[in-house]
Amino acid sequence: MAKFLERFDDFKECEIRSLEIISPTEMKMTLAVQDKARAYDWITINLLFSDVNDAQLVDENKLPYIDMSEGVSILHSEGLFAFAVGSYKSFSSSKDSSLFIICKNIKYSEGAF
Fold first, then answer.
1. Domain ranges across the chain
2. Which domain of life is it from (predicted)?
3. How many whole angstroms separate alpha carbon 4 and alpha carbon 83?
């Protein structure tokens, strides 16, 4: 996970384009981010969160106003992933974020900007 976050500079200054609730246990987030592996070109990343068991979300119309200056944290503990907006070092502190998702699986796909 560290190499993934490093490739995208921890998603600092990225833009959350959408957050779609597919079902109570599955969500998809689309972000515009700079890719270090592509000379910092902007690309789209889709994150699919499955087996979600806890989350704090924001309304879709407030997504453009989320402060992404600290990027995101993705932590792994006891078979769960914590995705949180902001810089967090522990699984429990990630729940202090204004937007977090706790799930069993995270998959990603890349797309054009």
1. 1-111
2. Bacteria
3. 13
